[in-house]
Write a structure and sequence with these properties.
mainly beta; Metal Binding Protein, Guanine Nucleotide Exchange Factor, Chain A; 1 helix; about 5% helix; about 35% strand
Length: about 140
């Protein structure tokens, strides 16, 4: 993993572009049902950065997926860019695979594994947490 900054990414169609001006505070795989449904995938790989270090061009759509969470996405192609808390957000979770070079950030653990799908077999040695684990 390189320490080169900034890291850049965006949506499938290019209408949304973003830059990360800091290395992630942490990164992981989320198996919760909200992430599964919002990503349309069995797991979502994310990285947390200070919200002030997330710079976005284009105007992402916003969807309040819970009483506490707001998801940002491209209104044109539907790509989910990230997630943040609704109130007083200090961090932003970006969808790692939306980076131009997603190999730059490697997940460190799994969270909400109580929702992991039985048919989705993950064979890594990363720590697993049935709840939010260290992502609090």
């Amino acid at each position: 993993m390189s320490n080169d900054l900034p890291l850049e990414g965006g949506c499938l169609c290019g209408a949304i572009r973003y830059r990360l001006n800091a290395r992630p505070l942490d990164a992981g795989y989320c198996h919760c049902r909200l992430c599964q449904r919002s990503a349309g995938a069995p797991v979502l790989a994310w990285a947390t950065i200070p919200i002030d270090d997330f710079v976005c061009t284009g105007e992402p759509g916003r969807y309040r997926s819970s009483s506490w969470g707001l998801r940002l996405f491209c209104r044109d192609c539907g790509t989910q860019i990230g997630y943040r808390e609704v109130e007083n957000a200090k961090t932003m979770d970006i969808n790692i695979v939306t980076l131009d070079d997603p190999e730059q950030i490697v997940p460190e653990y799994h969270i909400w594994t109580h929702s992991q799908l039985d048919w989705f077999d993950v064979r890594d040695d990363l720590p697993r947490h049935e709840d939010s684990g260290p992502d609090q």
